[in-house]
Each structure stands twice: as structure tokens, then as C-alpha cells.
Amino acid sequence: MITTILTDIEGTTSSISFVKDVLFPYARERLPAFVVTHGDDPDVQHWLHEAAKEARLVSASRQEIIDLLVGWIDADRKSTALKALQGMIWKDGYASGEYRAHVYPEVAARLRAWQAEGKRLYVYSSGSVPAQRLFFAHSEAGDLTPCFSGYFDTETGPKRDAESYRRIATAIDAPPAEILFLSDIVEELDAAAAAGLQTTLLARAPSTCPAGGAHRCVADFDAIDG
Ligand SMILES: [Mg+2]
Predict the structure, then answer these.
(1) Distance from residue 201's CA to the centre of ligand 1 (Å)
(2) Distance 24 CA to ligand 1 centre (A)
(3) In its keyword annotation, does this UniProt entry include Lyase (predicted)?
(4) Can you list the positions of beta strands (E) in 96-209?
(5) One domain, residues 68 and 172
């Protein structure tokens, strides 16, 4: 019996292209102006300082920090400071209605139906937890945060490591066998299955289900046997 659903975001609830083609370019484009405008806010100042420290810049000008951060975006560097600053920029973009987070058309209704059946829903994504909350608070289907009981990011561990799924099961106090993990990445599902979770692969069009795959596979949330 499935009592708990744990879902990935990109490629699962939502298109990969929204994050790649909308969110990341928006943060890159707005970052210089954001640093200039908000550079004296204590929160922003803190993360600019952390970025400089991470790069071992002793006394960096604001422009040097901007160049550093844009370089990190281009290099897809995993930096906590960069993530925090990107999150602040995205928050502005959501708040001003520049964009709403993409969710596939059937997703919101299925989340609400599972919730109405008494299932508990959680998110596990490589985007930071604050970014995940923003994402679902400002989705194309409205505020979906009331559907979720909690959020996990890679602070819990890598998504292709079985130990991460054991930690999540412990954190949400659910037997692994009662948790259904949804993802578009087979290696993530392999790791979840190794930890005893149930798994379903999302093969969003134009992808198709692999022949003879180890995981149940569906094209959308309506086909999930939850
Ligand atoms: Mg994914």
C-alpha cells in the first residue's frame, strides 16, 4: 500500500525547459542589476561575502563579485551562496509575475486527489528547498504548496545514492515500502529501489518507456498506480 508519494520536479511534475530556459537565464540576466540594487541588504551582503570567501577573494569590488557569480552560473558551479542569490532573484521574478512555474496539465489534479485520499506528498529535487517552495507557490496551476508535507534537496544527499532515500524515509517516518518515488531518471529510481522504496519512471513525451526497464513506467501522472 502506498501511503506516501515522493516526487522529483524537473522532467517529472514539470518540464526541464522551464528551469533551463526560463529560470536560469532570468537569474543570469538580472544578477548584475540585483547586486547593484540590493548589495547593501544584509542578507544579500552576507551571500556576496560568502561567495568572495569561497573564491578566496580578499578585497573584491562589486563588479568583480558580479563577474565571479556570472562565471559560476555559466560553469554550473554548485555554490550555496550562488544558489541563495539566485533564489532571491527568482523570488522577485515570481512576485512580479514575470513567469509562473510550469507543471504538466494533469499534475495538480492528481496531487490534490492523492492528498484527498490521505496520502502524504513530498518533493525531492536538486533545486534548493526555498526554490522548490517558490516553484510550487507560483505554479501555472496556482499555489500547490498546500499539497506538500515537506521538501528535500541535495542537503539530504545525492539523488543517485540509496542512503539519501533511507534518510528521507526516516525523516518522514514512513516505511520505505509504503513510499512511491516518481522520477524521470532511471539511476535515481535504482537508488530509491535499493533503499526499498517503490518506484515509477515518468517518460514525458517525446520520451518513451524503455523496453524491459526495471521500473514501472508511465507517460503522465494519470497513469500512476498510486
Ligand atoms: Mg528529474
Answers:
(1) 10
(2) 16
(3) no
(4) 120-124, 150-152, 179-183, 198-202
(5) no
